[in-house]
Amino acid sequence: xxxxxxxxxxxxxxxxxxxxxxxxxxxxxxxxxxxxxxxxxxxxxxxxxxxxxxxxxxxxxxxxxxxxxxxxxxxxxxxxxxxxxxxxxxxxxxxxxxxxxxxxxxxxxxxxxxxxxxxxxxxxxxxxxxxxxxxxxxxxxxxxxxxxxxxxxxxxxxxxxxxxxxxxxxxxxxxxxxxxxxxxxxxxxxxxxxxxxxxxxxxxxxxxxxxxxxxxxxxxx
Length: 221
Hints:
Elements: H1 4-19, H2 27-42, H3 58-81, H4 91-99, E1 105-106, H5 107-113, H6 118-130, E2 134-139, E3 142-150, H7 152-160, H8 162-172, H9 178-202, H10 207-220
Antiparallel strand pairs: 1-3, 2-3
Helix pairs in contact: 3-8, 4-6, 5-6
């Protein structure tokens, strides 16, 4: 019989008893303590300390994992911050703010600037039009296409949400120094420029084409 597991349990129990009084010690409280202990070990807060550059997946994987987690957290914060504005749920928020940077865009241009699938993007635009935040009109240069622009109502809503957007931005970038923010901005922008290029040119191709493009880009660097 192997006793490694038993020894591990005893070791954890001894650690548990150091932190609890006799009246707090029970099988159920030990179980909850273990769950919390292992959750903390696997918590995203500790992921930075667990990076193993020499692992089979390596540093690139760890970077992607952090970015994916950050994206999820950002969506949660944005949803909480924009609770008072149900017309700006999910991607509707980013579409309106993106369109504000331009006098007008075609629907496809706006969808591409948000790196979205066409059908999903059209649904977002349809909702913005329904709420009167965006209006559409024929493209004078292309009778088959329609352009969209932010309405006065959309601009007013933008002004109303400025405080919430600033709060969201402050929370997401909290505890970063000015130098860290500037460095992060440069790095993320560089990554986005490349990924946007891939999205525009290779979104219909398989990943081997993208790999070839990346390899060529690396050689140029």
